[in-house]
């Protein structure tokens, strides 16, 4: 990572917050842009995504590959503890087998294809039943809050509105709202219930940008450690790491993202 410039390093760190448990994500530039830079869609372009992706690939931090005509990425040497039984994205081999350290697991793309029946293979596979599919991504992205209740009702509303087809856009909107004035005001007092948010299709509404710190908390080490303290994880112990007794900063950062 030391070979990256600051822009590419921020890009890589943001990637770490959106990949699945197997370190995979779509490499489609528009979807990357929406997921990583939801508040900068008017200034960050698809070309920026292609350039930054090429830089992290050259640094051997990311593998970009293609399966069935679609581009995906996989973080190399990704040591996240795997909780999901299936990856949301196919493997570089195209057969959707998970990494070698998890030889018994399969991924969602092994499932049969369902859709309009035209047989062209364009339809996405259904989400794995036990993993919760796209709705689980939405629920995990929603901030911890007293109003985060009624998960089963929210999932029913998600299905009724056909949100699986818009999952990337909806999750990106949640991430952007988490940085907005209205959601950050008074310690999150105005964060709505997810059921209300879904029912009113609020991902289609414009988002106010946060007017305080111009950098998101996950863009700097200090911001990440401040968030770690806020979530009860403490700050990263650099001294312990230097003595070979502590975790890498990337592992600490991943824990902070998981707690938010």
Keywords for this entry:
Arc Repressor Mutant, subunit A, globular, 3 domains, mainly alpha, 11 helices, 3-stranded antiparallel β-sheet, 260 residues
Number of helices: 11
The CATH fourth-level homologous superfamily of the largest domain: Winged helix-like DNA-binding domain superfamily/Winged helix DNA-binding domain
- The CATH class label of the largest domain is Mainly Alpha
- Terminal residue distance: 24 Å
Tell me the structural class. mainly alpha
Approximate shape: globular
What is the total number of structural domains?
3
Report the portion of residues in β strands.
5-15%
What is the averaged pLDDT score?
Answer: 79
The CATH architecture of the largest domain comes to Orthogonal Bundle
- CATH fold call of the largest domain: Arc Repressor Mutant, subunit A
| Largest sheet descriptor | 3 strands, antiparallel
Radius of gyration: 19 Å
- Give the strand order, joined by hyphens, for the main sheet: 1-3-2
The helix fraction, in percent, is 25-40%
Question: Which stretches of 5+ consecutive residues score pLDDT under 50?
Answer: 97-131, 209-213
What does this structure look like?
There is one protein chain. A three-stranded antiparallel beta sheet has the order 1-3-2. The protein has 260 residues and is mainly alpha-helical. Helix 2 packs across helix 3. It starts with 5 loop residues before the first helix and ends with a helix. It folds into three domains: 131 residues, Winged helix-like DNA-binding domain superfamily/Winged helix DNA-binding domain (Arc Repressor Mutant, subunit A), CATH 1.10.10; 81 residues; 44 residues, no CATH class. The chain is built from eleven helices and three strands, in the order H-E-H-H-E-E-H-H-H-H-H-H-H-H.
């Amino acid at each position: 990572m030391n070979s990256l410039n600051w822009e590419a390093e921020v890009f890589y760190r943001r990637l770490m917050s959106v990949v699945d448990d197997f370190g995979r994500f779509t490499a489609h530039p528009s979807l990357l842009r929406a997921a990583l830079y939801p508040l900068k869609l008017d200034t960050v372009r698809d070309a920026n995504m292609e350039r930054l992706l090429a830089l992290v690939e050259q640094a051997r931090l990311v593998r970009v590959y293609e399966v069935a005509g679609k581009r995906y990425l996989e973080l190399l040497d990704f040591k996240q503890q795997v909780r999901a039984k299936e990856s949301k994205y196919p493997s570089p081999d195209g057969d959707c087998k998970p990494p070698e350290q998890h030889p018994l697991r399969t991924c969602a793309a092994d499932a049969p294809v369902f859709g309009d029946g035209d047989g062209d293979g364009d339809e996405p596979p259904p989400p794995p039943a036990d993993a919760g599919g796209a709705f689980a991504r939405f629920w995990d992205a929603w901030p911890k809050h007293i109003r985060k209740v009624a998960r089963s009702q929210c999932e029913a509303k998600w299905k009724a509105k056909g949100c699986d087809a818009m999952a990337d856009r909806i999750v990106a909107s949640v991430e952007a709202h988490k940085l907005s004035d209205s959601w950050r005001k008074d310690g999150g007092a105005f964060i709505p219930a997810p059921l209300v948010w879904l029912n009113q299709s609020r991902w289609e509404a414009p988002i106010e940008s946060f007017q305080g710190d111009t950098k998101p908390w996950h863009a700097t080490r200090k911001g990440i450690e401040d968030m770690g303290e806020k979530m009860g994880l403490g700050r990263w112990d650099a001294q312990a790491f230097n003595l070979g007794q502590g975790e890498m900063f990337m592992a600490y950062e991943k824990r902070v993202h998981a707690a938010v």
